Each structure stands twice: as structure tokens, then as C-alpha cells.
Amino acid sequence: MLKISTESVGDIVLVRQGAGYFALQDKCPHADASLSEGFVEDGRVVCPLHFAEFDLLSGAVHGGPKGCPRAKAFRVEVEDGGLYLHVPEKTGACGPQHDAAHVP
Ligand code: FES
Q1: Dist CA 84 CA 75 (whole Å)
Q2: Residue 15 burial (CB < 10 Å; 0-12/13-18/19+)?
Q3: pLDDT tens for residues 17-67?
Q4: Residues ≥6 apart with Cβ < 8 Å to 8
Q5: Minimal CA–CA distance to 56: which of 22, 13, 16?
Q6: Distance from C-alpha of 74 to C-alpha of 64, rounded to nearest angstrom
Q7: What pLDDT does 95 receive?
Q8: Long-range interactions of 50-59: CB distance < 8 A, separation 24+
Q9: Is 99:6 a contact under the CB 8 Å cutoff?
Q10: Ligand 1: which of 24, 28, 34, 62 to mutate, judged by most atoms within 8 Å of the beta carbon?
Q11: How many domains does the chain have?
Q12: pLDDT digits (tens, 9 = 90+) for 1-31
């Protein structure tokens, strides 16, 4: 797991699973813990504070405190040797906006 700061969506936690990469907003939607300080188990990021589990692909929440919302998940693509984070348009215009996330 790697914490990366982006211009468009702030801090994300980047996870590599096999050949795939996944990204979630680094801030836990329950009480703002840094998800990058947690761990990955069975395709989920586990929050280090109250142990909510967030699906890597969708951000759906499993377990954890009652009422904890889902985490924001971003699609990650590998292209031309770089990683690209797909960020939804705020304006509602069509087409994905790309934000490059460079992994050291
Ligand atoms: S801060 Fe993450 S589950 Fe409470």
C-alpha cells in the first residue's frame, strides 16, 4: 500500500493486487483515519482505527462501525509505463478526466 498525494482528489491509497492496481481516498469516511496506515486482506483495505473494511474495486463497506459510508474508489489504469487515476468530472461533462499518479 502506498499513500500518494494528487492535485485533483487529495490523498489516495494505492494498492497493487496481482497485476492490478486499485485506489481509494486515503481518508476513512467514518472518522478520517488514514487508510494507508491500515492493511489489505481478502481484496479489502482495513481501516486501522475501527476496522471497517473497504472493497478495493467499489469502496463498498463491510463490517466496521454502524452507518459507516463507502469509501471513494477510483479506477486505475496502467498506460505507457505510468499509472492513471480516473477522476469523475465535477461538471457532469462526458468522458473521464485523467490524473497521473506516478509510483516510485
Ligand atoms: S475511522 Fe475508519 S472505521 Fe472508524
Answers
A1: 8
A2: buried
A3: 998 999 999 999 999 999 999 999 999 999 999 999 999 999 999 998 999
A4: 85, 87, 97, 99
A5: 22
A6: 21
A7: 46
A8: 52/28, 54/24, 56/15, 56/17, 56/22, 56/24, 57/22, 59/24, 59/25
A9: yes
A10: 28
A11: 1
A12: 999 999 989 999 999 999 899 999 999 999 9
User: For cell 459510508, what's the residue?
Assistant: 69
DSSP alpha helix (H) spans, 9-65: none
Residues within a 6 A CB radius of ligand 1: 28, 30-31, 33, 47, 49-50, 52, 64-65, 68
Ligand 1 atom, smallest distance to 52 CA: 3
Angle at 13 between CA 12 and CA 18, to 5 degrees: 135
Domain around 97 = 2-101
Question: Does the pTM exceed 0.70?
Answer: yes
* CATH number of the CATH domain containing 51: 2.102.10.10
